[in-house]
Design a protein that fits this description.
Distance between the termini: 83 Å
Number of helices: 5
Strand order of the largest sheet: 1-2-4-3
Helix content: 40-55%
Structural class: alpha+beta
Radius of gyration: 27 Å
Length: 153
């Protein structure tokens, strides 16, 4: 693997990989490989930028040679990574969240008001709440904050 050293101080090095943006599996393999190297205290891999930060003790040249020997297809590297990792789970939830937010935004922008009101009533009914749309007009909330007006005297 080719790397380019971005920043370096004694005991810490940040480098970018030749792979560019990393997938979850590739980033996990690189992170667990770096953590398995002797002298490495901590390692963090950033998927979006393809960078890695390694805190280490010991000679710098040995670390860089070991990093350059990294291959994601190597069976020994694949054996280091657990079956389920938090990075893959976070990526799945991020995709799900973006899909939900985009769907809601499109619905709010393109659906007419009566359809949005019907959807809100259906959601209330599904949750078992009493929908404010079904409450008779004199009993509906007239003031902000959900406070009912005082009864007439």
């Amino acid at each position: 693997m080719k790397i380019r050293i971005e920043h370096e101080i004694k005991g810490r090095i940040r480098f970018s990989t030749s792979y560019g943006i990393l997938g979850a599996q590739h980033a996990d393999r690189l992170e667990y490989y770096l953590l398995s190297l002797p002298g490495v205290q901590s390692a963090k891999v950033y998927t979006r930028s393809g960078n890695a930060v390694v805190c280490y003790t010991g000679p710098r040249t040995e670390l860089l040679q070991a990093v350059c020997r990294f291959s994601p297809q190597d069976e020994a590297v694949r054996a280091l990574v657990p079956e389920h990792t938090s990075r893959a789970l976070n990526e799945a939830y991020r995709e799900k969240l973006v899909g939900r937010v985009a769907g809601r935004l499109v619905f709010q922008l393109l659906a007419p008001a009566p359809l949005r009101a019907a959807r809100a009533c259906a959601a209330c009914a599904a949750a078992g709440w009493r929908c404010p749309c079904w409450t008779p007009p004199p009993l509906r909330c007239r003031l902000p904050g959900g406070i009912f007006p005082p009864p007439p005297q």
